[in-house]
Amino acid sequence: MSGKYDLIIVGGGISGASLLYTTAKFTDIESIALLEKESEIAAINSDHTNNSQTLHFGDIETNYTLEKAEKVKEGAEMLAGYLENHDADREMHSKRSKMVLAVGDDEVQKLEDRYHEEGFGDLYPKLRPIERDEIAELEPKVVEGRDPSKDLLALQTPDGYVVDYGATAKSMVEQAKEEASVDVYTGTEVEDITETLDGYTIGTSGGRFDCDVAVVAAGSHSLQIAKELGYGEDMVLLPIAGSFFLADDFLNGKVYTLQMKKLPFAAVHGDADVHDGSITRFGPTAKLVPTLERGRFSTIGDFLDVFGLNLASFLSYGNILADRILLPYVLKNLVYDLPEVGTKAFLPHVQKVVPSATLDDIERAEGYGGVRPQIVDTANKSLDMGEAKLVGDDIIFNITPSPGASTSLKNAMQDTETLVEFFDEDYSFDEEAFREDTIGQFPRAEDDVDPDPVPADDD
Ligand SMILES: Cc1cc2nc3c(=O)[nH]c(=O)nc-3n(C[C@H](O)[C@H](O)[C@H](O)COP(=O)(O)OP(=O)(O)OC[C@H]3O[C@@H](n4cnc5c(N)ncnc54)[C@H](O)[C@@H]3O)c2cc1C
Questions:
Q1: How high does pLDDT run on average in the chain?
Q2: Does residue 156 register a pLDDT over 50?
Q3: Which atom of ligand 1 is closest in space to residue 242's alpha carbon?
Q4: How far apart are CA 145 and CA 361, in angstroms?
Q5: What CA–CA distance (Å, rounded) separates 195 from 393?
């Protein structure tokens, strides 16, 4: 196997697949290849068992500022529009109610302020405050057995897209492969990338490839590859694995709890599985691990490559983990994966959403959960939330913790604009057609004919 291409994309998760789809369908780039080390597309973090299957709009995520919510919203609408356009049979997604729940005076006040004062009500026209009776109608188990003296308020929206990002990535790759310009190589691991006079040479387990420009969308491995080429020197990763617990038929849609103060990782939430509404999933947990892929000890070396074993990395870890709130949280999260005692320790998180849940109702989801490559800024010794993009000389690296799947098409759009510049505008991007295919298909509040937020059985 070998080849010379205008553009090579490394990594076939939802990020690489979104970029392949965007460039194949909406540019005139003449030759594009995608290289994926696994035998299947989207087998790592984008697989539906490994992430929370949420399309993050920023409406119920109380860990987002308004500014972050505005950014994420456009990306989510692009992906939602793609699904509306290409998944009429709901094989890749479901659409259900979703809400963020406030319990007690303090939380209720916070949620009211967020909605009325901080601009979230205006930004999300479909989001509405609902009280105990309506919460009970949508999600009976959220109210059942809950202290009646405690105030309850939820912000609810029917825009609860539950997404199988793996299936979505596969659909994008299949559509891209219809174009003559595209080749997809699975089972092809990139081993080294070398800059040449007119682009890059990529050594892989399947042979050598050459390209003018490259995009590395290799998830947790992107920073490792970037460092080998001299980029991202002020960054290391804090890999955070997430596990899930399963219960039978607890929730009809998605229920978030309010973000815990000062915690950098999203609050635990519950939702119905994308493909089987009778399975309710709770999580994710947040466990610090020294690997770049879940359960693959062979990636310890990759983690150490990124960590670099230098003083700045150790001091940054020390500074972040010394936090009075974060340290106990990280330690507690180590317990959740232990048999029995882990389930017992996790139960209170489930009871925050479903108060009547007992130990017999939940079990740890074996084999579920991926790794979020959280970014550490070693210059400031701080934890940066969200994704990162490094733009180099005719090369882009995408590092994609949550909400990387939700924003994958927006990222792809931005990368495609950069690629056109890399190619000195020899190729063009039909952004209007891209927008029409994606965000153009997103249903707006004013388009809704059926205001009933209780979804029919749509699995
Ligand atoms: C527990 C958890 C919950 C999450 N929940 C959500 C959520 O609800 N919503 C959301 O938007 N996001 C969520 N995320 C984040 C989301 O899963 C990721 O942002 C997204 O899957 C990243 O996609 P990706 O394509 O960039 O990376 P990946 O899916 O990891 O894909 C990278 C690909 O690159 C390949 N690769 C790596 N190295 C090489 C190499 N050397 N050669 C060839 N191929 C290579 C890998 O095999 C892999 O297929 C969650 C993540 C976790 C772990």
A1: 94
A2: yes
A3: 1
A4: 15
A5: 9
Q: How confident is the model at residue 242 (pLDDT cuts 50, 70, 90)?
A: very high
What tokens were used for 270? Answer: 């519950």
Looking at residue 125, the DSSP 8-state letter turns out to be T
Whether residue 451 has pLDDT greater than 50: no
Q: Quick one: pLDDT at residue 448?
A: 57
Q: What is the gyration radius of the CA atoms in the chain, in angstroms?
A: 22
Handedness of CA 169, 86, 388, 415 (dihedral sign): positive
Q: Contact 146/355 with Cβ under 8 angstroms?
A: yes
Q: What pLDDT does 458 receive?
A: 40
- The best mutation among 72, 402, 409 to test binding of ligand 1, ranked by most ligand atoms within 8 Å of the C-beta, falls on 402
Candidate from 52, 184, 387, 396 with most ligand 1 atoms within 8 A of CB, to mutate? 52
pLDDT in tens, 84-131: 999 999 999 999 999 999 999 999 999 999 999 999 999 999 999 999
The Cα angle at residue 266 between residues 261 and 272, in degrees rounded to 5: 130
- The pLDDT of residue 450 is above 90: no
Using the structure block, give the residue that is written with the tokens 């947040």: 286
Question: Rounded to whole angstroms, how far apart are CA atoms 191 and 76?
Answer: 33
Q: Is 179 in the pocket of ligand 1 (CB under 6 A)?
A: no
CA-based nearest residue to 56, from 350, 294, 266: 266
* Cut 0.85: pTM above it: yes
Strand 245-248 and strand 279-283: the pairing is: antiparallel
107: Cα separation from own chain's centroid: 26
Phi first, then psi: give them for residue 52, nearest 5 degrees.
-85, 10
